[in-house]
Amino acid sequence: MLPFIQIGSFRFQSYLFMALVAFLASTLLIVLRRKPQGVPVWEALALSCTTLVGGIIGAKIFHLAGRVIQGEAFWTVRFWQSVRLDSGYVWYGGVIGAFLFLLVYAKIRKMPLRNMFDLMTPFALSFDAIARFGCLFAGCCYGVRVAWGIKIHGVPRFPSPLFESALCLIILALFLIWKPERKRPGILLPLFLALYSAGRFFLEYFRGDAHRGSFLIFSASFRQFGASR
User: Fold this and answer.
1) Helix, strand, or coil here: 7?
2) Would you call 12 exposed, middle or buried from its count of C-beta atoms within 10 A (0-12, 13-18, 19+)?
């Protein structure tokens, strides 16, 4: 575990630092891939920032909603005092938030949805692949206890963040090599959702952070008041 990264006299939380690296790298990726979609540099940057803002808002709302569902009283001072910008996010809330913000952006700009999502789907994959290293460094989203695992909180655990990062990189590599959007515009988003969901469903069986809570028979991200992902 490496909860903080020291650069000179500056000290950063590992997850936030890796999220920043992920954002910059993913932004560079869509800038490099923008030409086939006919997107200028400034619009690629605008899409990147829109995705970031929507993702943060959606991830935070889902985290807070999960706490309320689990019985916390949202009208108390204690509830809102515990709200922090440096932790407490739900991944799928971020996906939904980013998706909705991009829909609004596309409507305002009158941008074809197929082109936009073909451009932004690799952004999502790249971002998650890199940001998951922040999860590993921070010691959250850890896996079940195994003899060969990485020590997290003093216990050898299945490194689920690394496997999820690998999943995203494999999907991203497939998209970049075969470029299925050239034959069928708009296909990247449904392919991403199908492949990632299947892989994530499998990985959930190896997650050991049960304090995230559950909904019916499914795991959720409710109870981790630190960084729920």
Assistant:
1) strand
2) middle
